[in-house]
């Protein structure tokens, strides 16, 4: 079943009528555990210009037919109703690599027009950002996170299977020069790059970037993740403290995934998203849309609820919102990685979206 191994969906998982038994009569995206989703992640493509070993297979993910992906207008409509009817306040566009959508500026512009008060962000590998950024900012983009796991060129080439580090640096410089602040960098914690973690943090500080390390999760398409190989937050902190003095900061927002530390007394900080060993599932406030238009209530839940069929079938906004509420009502309690019966999701991170 190669489609499953590569993390693509099965049609049986596209639910049209999730149960709403016991759900209170409220407009927001509440679930059975009392959490309310206000942060929308929208994957707009499965394509990527890199082939990171912890995310994609060397050959990339199977292509999704263009007609099966949401159009810019459909994305804009869903963002608009999420803001007007469902209480969503932030949207982040992801991939794959969102810069590979030629109509990305249109997606942002239509989303901003439909939801004028919503915050619009993007997670990118930075390749080509220097060329696309002016149009994206003009369309309404406000914040950018760039994925950067190492500043060592050889390590970068091995990890991503592409020698494109200079292009990533160019994208980061362009974002910095454009005044995007805070400019965040995301680094996945890996055994092979742990020795360079202090250099990466020093580089981030020198280049006025806010670095966040992320524990690797079992979301790689090649299914090579093993708990015993995990570099966890505690081990990373030990390494960082060989070079920096770190002082923990209080977590003001319980739904924020990152724990933060002051570096050498501040004002610079470093964050760690310890998704595996310090789970924040109980405060999760995210809802996700795949590029094919399904609601994915949990990163680790394979249930997907089809909004595209309603969009293209003439449904009004309230009908779509009602189905979206039902999908989120059935959100699972957490990723369950500590359970004996844990099974990794069928989709990989590249197909789900960051």
Write the layout of secondary structure elements.
Blueprint: H1 2-5, E1 14-15, E2 29-30, E3 36-37, E4 39-43, H2 72-85, E5 90-94, H3 104-114, E6 119-124, H4 129-139, E7 143-147, H5 153-160, H6 165-177, E8 184-189, H7 197-206, E9 210-215, H8 233-240, E10 246-248, E11 259-263, E12 269-273, E13 286-289, E14 294-296, E15 304-306, H9 308-312, H10 317-329, H11 349-352
Helix pairs in contact: 2-3, 3-4, 4-6
Mean pLDDT: 88
Which percent range fits the helix content?
A: 25-40%
Q: Can you tell me the CATH architecture?
A: Alpha-Beta Barrel
Number of domains: 1
Give the count of helical stretches. Answer: 11
Taking pLDDT < 50 over at least 5 consecutive residues as the criterion, the unreliable ranges are 1-13
CATH third-tier fold name = TIM Barrel
Spatial order of the strands forming the largest sheet: 1-15-14-13-4-5-6-7-8-9-12-11-10
Q: Quick one: biggest sheet?
A: 13 strands, mixed
Broad structural category: alpha/beta
Report the end-to-end length measured between terminal Cα atoms: 24 Å
Query: CATH homologous superfamily name?
Result: Aldolase class I
- SSE series: HEEEEHEHEHEHHEHEHEEEEEEHHH
Q: Any idea of the CATH class?
A: Alpha Beta
Structure write-up:
The strands form two sheets. A 13-stranded mixed beta sheet has the order 1-15-14-13-4-5-6-7-8-9-12-11-10. A hairpin with a 5-residue loop joins strand 11 and strand 12. The longest helix is centred in the N-terminal third of the chain and has 14 residues. Helix 2 packs parallel to helix 3, helix 3 runs parallel beside helix 4 and helix 4 runs parallel beside helix 6. It has eleven helices and 15 strands. With 354 residues, it is an alpha/beta fold. It has one domain: TIM Barrel (Alpha-Beta Barrel), CATH 3.20.20.70.
